[in-house]
Fold this protein.
Amino acid sequence: MAGLEDYKGQTPAWCPGCGNFGILKTFKDALVDLGIEPHQFTIVSGIGQAAKLPHYLRCNTFNGLHGRTLPVATGIRLANHGMPVIAVAGDGDCYGEGGNHFLHAMRRNINVKLFVHDNQIYALTKGQASPTTAEGTKTKNQPFGVFSEQLNPMALAVAMDCSFVARGFAGDGGQLKELIKAALGHRGFSLVDILQPCVTFNKINTYEWYKQRVYNIGPDHNPNDRMAAFGRALEWGDRIPTGVIYKNDRPIYEERNPVVRERPLVSMKFEKSRLEATEKEFF
Amino acid sequence: MDYSIRIGGEAGQGIQTVGDTLAKVFSRSGYHVFTHQDYESRVRGGHNFYQVRFSDNPVTASRDKIDILIAFDTISIELYEKELSENGRIAYDSSSLKTGYTGPYFFDVPFYDLALKHGGSKIMANTVAMGAVMGMLGLEADILSALLQEAFESKGEEVVAANVTSLTAGLVFARQNCSGCSFSMAPLSEPKLLITGTEAIGFGAIASGCRFYAAYPMTPSTGIMNYIAAKEEEYGVLVEQAEDEISAINMALGASFAGVRAMTGTSGGGFALMVEGLSLSGMTETPVVIALGQRPGPATGLPTRTEQGDLQFALYTAHGEFPRVVFAPGTPKQAFHLTNKAFDLAEKYQIPAIVIFDQYLADSCWTFEGLDLDGLIYNDYRLRGEALRALNTYKRHEVTDDGISPFGVPGDSRHLVVTDSDEHDEEGHIIEDAATRVLMVEKRFKKKLPLVHAEMAPPMFHGHKDPDIVMAGWGSTYGPIKEAVDALSGEYSIGMLHFSEIFPFPSTDRFDYIGLLSKAKTTICVENNAQGQFARLMRAETGFSFSGHINRYDGRPFTVESLAGDIRGRVGRL
């Protein structure tokens, strides 16, 4: 059984006080709780502060390109669906550069777990607006304030009938741990958007700002009710719901595709004997 | 015997089906076949043609001269009447074209009336036309009849029967009415294998143990995806249509990292989107095979036509420095084996391998006696299961003498497999220090490069020994150059050099082709592009400059007569 010390990776290069520390700690706790060992799963990340997480965790890792987390995760999962695959991205990474991949991963319903560290800002490139930055926010690159409507990942995911949609907060490790475990246990493409303060570049969405607004949606909400989920997904501003907003039991890609239904591609041996018969088809 | 049949008409009239079927009749008759297609970027209407050349001698290109024109529209007659050979015939249906033509070579066949009368439906008109071709050539119905049986078996006996009676009606009509049809056919022999360029790449991938193919549809590469998709369950190869080409190559890299052989295919515009992923393959040392089907650019260009305009793009694109191989097959059989070699080298050296082709090779059918399956290479270079578990320590990017690190399958052992698009250490974790950077550039690039270089085969030579004239080419121009050189070999001391293993540029160790070129009086590089991209590469890599260039960039392939004429014009009488 793996303990916390088995998950001790490289020393993080994040700013002191960064919300990522809380997320990393919670991630480790969840993995230890679930009894998963470092070699038994793969984390795919892109580029951004969030994308460094697998290096600080010890696990099979593909730290790829900015925005391209989900295609790589999809490829790994299609080749070997015997192994859990986790994708870790930031808000710019996943909702900006990788927006198209995000839409189609939800459609495909590949059993990949996506965790988006949503700090509502580009941090690695030092403070530009991200897709989730509030309209009107002024930055060095948006001196007149952001003109574009803020992207709502929860509403988008519910609209796309994403199999599991949840929101967590880096400042509430207890709840976040349960959400990570629920997502990893869910059968289907899962999105957990994690609200996370950026102590260096986002002076608006601070720990205090979030703490005043987030609330746990609790047992009254039925996450299988898509219309109710959509209502919750639209809530933003004074009150921000956290918890499992929506889930369904759509069949996953891996069980629908007959090529891999029985066993993963990676376990298949190259069989030369059929080639002659295939060659004959050209006569 | 060397005849060419051209089928012309609108998109949607079934021209491709007629062409494919006739090609198969001739290959099953034991003739050598070459086909090429010329089509517009539309599903209905417009004007397309399909040309089938067949002979009792090997054929590797199209000719300008047509022996039988099957005209399904009046444009075919306007455009190609002048290309008819001396004893050629134009078969058409005056009632459906609403025009009658006079002239000794016009042969009015009531395709539609015969189809209605004998097959019960106008849909059978194409079958009548194919039957008429059999009758005009003096062939029997049996081979075509068997093909129709195979094609329509699944639709029931009635459909098969209607096709066979329609075929017979066309055949009998032509036998009785084609006065002056004087085609003389060589005796039949053993059936030959008939295959297109994209089928050959698709089959080559499967024969190399490819398990994963992700792509976004794009002419002229889509045929590869179609072929592999038809074999998904039989061979255990998963085909995923990605949301875009960026996703396609990243999915392929993910699958490859997870332990299976992976491939993607596209054309120039899609490859442009893949470039970032190509660089990722280089940095993470994740093997991937990319089939790059050229069509005339820039931008959307002429989407359904042919060009060799993306050679420089394939050679030099992607940020940073890393090894890659580029192969350019000249025939479907070469495409089959070079796809296999691309997989082998990609896996052996953990690099990207590109197979560059074009619309002409993609859609052309060639005949062969067989594909030489015994020549296939398959070695599993990955560390799996017990072999990986037996290691005490494991580092994905371990520095080794040859630069090749052990490539473990994640999840197969307790060893972690870690890689990064950032510069990384031996374990695969992000680094910033200069010393590790240098170590990794040397490992990934400088150590592997000479090994990859040594794998490249020299060009093929064909023709006179110590020739005065050398024609050089790469990729799909192989066929036209070969036949033009053969046609001129009675007049000139002439030979050809064909390059199919392009990059790293083959050395002269095994064959001193630079010596051969230097001794020749005239050296001409033939390319389907405007600037002579291969000639530039040759100059950059070897310092050798060709004395002349023949470039075609109208989106059409070279034909034997036009190329031979061009060469004569350049060389004159020696």
About this structure: The longest strand of chain B covers residues 45-55. The two ends of chain B are 31 Å apart (CA to CA). Residues 383-455 of chain B form one domain.
